[in-house]
């Protein structure tokens, strides 16, 4: 392969890094090799473009820039201002949002910014009201202990974890579970789908301050118009965490009732999943919440990462191109082909299929736990993650599900035929894996039996499947 500009850029960077700590340069090379040879079906991962990756590796990283554009706590932020303003402009244009805040370092951070903005907007806490009335840096003078007492137990209603909701939507292992008194809505046990009448009933009983929609393992669309009506009926602020499906919104696959931006008061997202940007987060909102959202740093965030905001700007610019819409549609077409291929071979799928980027296999149909299935697939060169299914009998650690998603393989160029071949590989492994036993002969939720020769064979088939779709084809590090 001729050395081109991308090869030169990455090879030169690795040479410079290797001159200081060769083991790090080696780990970076090894990561590319691993990514190139594995069938990556983790629904929350993707492959960012070379331009996005390169935007992160530079001296923008050296700058402190707490505050917002044109209003910083440090001097010399003119270039960071340019970067942040461009990223926010691309985000507003792409999603049709009035306001975009591009500083959050992750999805959890974006959600924390949104929660504090909602509390500041809605709760009559004198300590917070005093801060709201003043300049952003007065937040450092807030009496945080008084504020915590004044906020009291505010309520949040979000999707339950086993139905596909996310930890940051008020669950105990996350700070949101300490900030809010949380109640969940699940899915219909017969169909696996959100039952909007039940959500409305839960909202009427619980009277939440915040109604959250959004998921990390629900394989269907959510009707955000109906959810907003439910929120309005009880005076709740409606927040959507679109981290998983932001790329489908950006690519106009989710429109109308299924586009959260026109319906929610506030929308959060990560930038690295189906949106295919750098690892990070973002908040979109209307003018009413914009001032509160912009207080994210120093309210709950450390200093912004200018190099990552630069990469967000690059990725968002890419997502505004017409070919991104084609990519987003192919993500869903591929997920549906994968689901159909699995169903045809006898797999049991939560909700019976998908209309987004992910498929949730209920592996109890193969007599396995999620943990056994995840490891057997990994032995066979197929990278997935275990995930709870609704009312999961095996709990959140072992689980009964395998979540698979198509954003990464779609970036790589795989299409409908390859999805069917992938379904065949997954089904082959799962149907030929059996649950193992512990040392005392009792059934184990972790141990499993899979013929290593079969695992090797599937691994080779996975590599052959990928061979026609080189990852980062213009990057040659040899
Ligand atoms: N870790 C992400 C996922 O895999 O869905 C969500 O936080």
Helical content stands at 40-55%
Q: What is the alpha-carbon Rg in Å?
A: 23 Å
The structure class reads alpha/beta
The overall strand count is 16
The CATH topology of the largest domain comes to Aspartate Aminotransferase, domain 2
Order the strands across the largest sheet as they lie in space: 4-10-9-8-7-5-6
Low-confidence stretches: none
The percentage of residues in β strands lies in 5-15%
SS element count, helices: 20
Structure explained in plain terms:
With 478 residues, this protein is an alpha/beta fold. It has two domains: 62-319, 3-Layer(aba) Sandwich (Aspartate Aminotransferase, domain 2); 322-466, Aspartate Aminotransferase, domain 1, CATH 3.90.1150. It has helices at residues 5-18, 22-37, 50-56, 78-95, 107-122, 126-132, 144-151, 176-179, 196-206, 224-233, 246-250, 287-293, 296-299, 306-319, 322-344, 370-379, 395-398, 407-412, 416-431, 452-467, and strands at 39-40, 67-68, 71-72, 99-101, 154-159, 180-185, 210-214, 237-241, 266-270, 281-285, 358-362, 382-383, 385-387, 401-405, 434-437, 443-449. The strands form five sheets. It has a seven-stranded mixed beta sheet with strand order 4-10-9-8-7-5-6, with helices on both faces. Strands 11-14-13 form a three-stranded antiparallel beta sheet. A two-stranded parallel ribbon has the order 1-12. Strand 15 and strand 16 (443-449) form a beta hairpin. Helix 3 runs antiparallel to helix 14. The chain is globular, with a radius of gyration of 23 Å. The model has no long low-confidence stretch (mean pLDDT 94). Belongs to the SHMT family.
